[in-house]
Prior knowledge:
Elements: H1 3-6, E1 15-18, H2 24-34, E2 38-43, H3 60-66, E3 69-73, H4 79-90, E4 94-97, H5 101-107, H6 111-117, E5 122-127, H7 142-148, H8 169-192, E6 197-201, H9 202-209, H10 211-220, E7 237-241, E8 246-250, H11 254-263, H12 267-271, H13 278-283, H14 285-296, H15 301-310, E9 314-317, H16 321-326, H17 328-333, E10 336-341, E11 345-350, H18 376-382, H19 387-396
Parallel strand pairs: 1-2, 1-4, 2-3, 4-5, 5-6
Antiparallel strand pairs: 7-8, 8-9, 10-11
Helix pairs in contact: 2-8, 8-9
Amino acid sequence: MSETASAELPLSRYKVLDLTVARAGPVAVRLLADWGAKVIRVDAPAGKDRGSLTGKRRGSDEQNMHRNKRSVCIDLKTPSGSEVLKRLIAQSDVVVENFRAPVKQRLGLTYEQLKHSNPRIILASISGFGQDGPYSERPAVDQVIQGMSGLMSVTGQPDHGPMRVGIAISDTAAGMFLGQGILLALLHREHTGQGQWVHTSLFESMLNKLDFQAARYTVSGETPGPQGNGHPTQAPMGAFKSLDGMVNISAHTDRMWLALCDAVDCAALRDHPNYQTHASRLAHRQQLCEDIDKVTQRFTSAELVKRLTAAGVASGPIYDIGQAFEDPQAKHLRMTRPAMHNTLGAVNLIRSPINLSAFPHPERFHHAGPDPGEHSRAILQELGYDASAIDRMTQEGAVS
């Protein structure tokens, strides 16, 4: 995508300063960058970078995480680096960070400090457990949050103990929620001219994402447990065996249940006395699933899905990730777009899942994930530094 095209996107008038590390914060910033926000990412100077949790910048993960951003390397502990940070903040609409409270205070990044010089600034913060409370200073990673939120307790098979979800779900959920919060704050600023502090945490995000499972506890006092591939409150719904694999099937309504029985030519299932109502099917769920398995194993996965789809029963094959991206629907949706990297060439990255009728997805990302400091000199010049000042700060190690 050209710079001209990116300037036409809905967030193109906003400038965002990305001070985050790890995954959750960059996910929030990526939401903004994909829709045109002008993002400057602050990376640590060469030799002082402790290493990224998401891998090297030219690796697949960081390319996908940091596309559409520019990078400047600054040592924030130096006086010159601190001055550069102040200039960056002064030209920013949004500052995104995930520092501990003492670090925010030292760097002048608390909301009270920022709004004193710029009442329109939006500070967006992300943490493990929240900005205050007994756990606010505890370190956190996705798997720890998965466990403490209760997510692992409802994941996996009933007799195999807790199981983590296979993606960094608390990181990505928190990042998406923070991105939404930033958009809400920008809307509020449009009406009032006032900025504000937006913050969330991995813990808050996952407690929210538990959704109906959490409501079973908060409303009814019921503590859910793991159900494996079966649905906790609907039947039949789950993964069933086929001749050559497994297929997900959902036939939890009376209409779908009858359609399932007809699609697999099994009157015995339809007429079974224990399967005449949803309540009865749920009460006899284990036997029901075993009986369905015996029938579905007569068909290949493709044949089973074809029959069930024609009958209006929700079903689908269970893919690996490669198969998912090669599926005809994924191909039709064009879920990847290339980003041109000076060294790697065209890198295929996953596009935003948001579709706006007024803004069709660009044909390519306007920036590949930048090498740390790739745009340092250009950004410093935009901030008003001349060549001699940039050279001096480089020699001092304040920038690179």
